[in-house]
Amino acid sequence: MGHLVVAHAMNVMPALEPLSTLPKSIGWSLHRDENTTSFYLDTFKAGTERKWPFTSMPPIKDVPLELPEELAALSRVYNLLESVRLANTFKRAFLNLNLALSKSLQLEIFSVCTDDDGLDFVCREPIAGPGLPRWHGGHTDEDRKL
Fold first, then answer.
1. How far is CA 130 from the centre of its chain?
2. pTM: predicted TM-score of the whole model, two decimal places
3. Which of 9, 19, 82, 103 pairs as cysteine with 87 (C-beta 3.0–4.6 A)?
C-alpha cells in the first residue's frame, strides 16, 4: 500500500461525547482547518503511536461488514462487484463507520479513504431524510485487467 489518507470531514464543530459510542478499538482525534469552518476526524487503532494524522486505516474488526437493511441496494451492488472480482475497493466496513459517525454525531459526514495504489473510496451520509449515502469507489490496475 502506498501513501494512505483516511479522514472524515464535517462543516461544523461536532459534540465529542457521542464519539464514546465508537468501538473501543477505534481511537480518534479532531482537527480544525483554521482557514475554513471545516473539521476533520482522524480514526485509527486505539493505543497505537502515530507519527502523522490521517495516515492509518481504522481497525474494522469491531465494525460490521454487512450493510444495514436500509442499504440493501448497496449490498446488491457489492454482490455484483464481487461476482466479477471487483469488490475489493468497495469498503463496506468503512461505509458502516461513516454511518455510525453520522448517526452518533447527528451530522453529515464526508469520509474518504485513498492511497496511491488504486484505493479510492468516498462516502457521504446525508443526515436529513431517508435515502442512500452517496459513494464512489475506485479500482486497481489489476482490476482493470479482469
1. 19
2. 0.79
3. 82
Q: What is the dihedral of CA 47, 109, 92, 112, to 10 degrees?
A: -80
Range 13-22 contact pairs with CB under 8 angstroms and sequence separation of 24 or more: 13/39, 14/39, 14/41, 14/105, 14/107, 15/105, 18/104, 18/105, 18/106, 19/104, 19/105, 21/100, 21/104, 22/100, 22/101, 22/104
State the average pLDDT for the chain. Answer: 82
Distance CA 81, CA 124 (A): 20
Place of cell 468497495: 90
Residue percentage of the chain with pLDDT more than 90: 38
Q: What is the pLDDT of residue 2?
A: 61
Domain residue spans of the chain = 5-145
**Cα gap 61→44, rounded to integer Å:** 12
Contact status, residue 7 vs residue 42, Cβ threshold 8 Å? yes
Alpha helices in the chain (DSSP H): 72-83, 92-105, 141-145
- The per-residue pLDDT for range 100-144, each reduced to its tens digit, is 999 899 999 999 988 877 677 788 876 544 444 444 444 444 433
Query: Are residues 82 and 98 in contact, defined by beta-carbon separation less than 8 angstroms?
Result: no
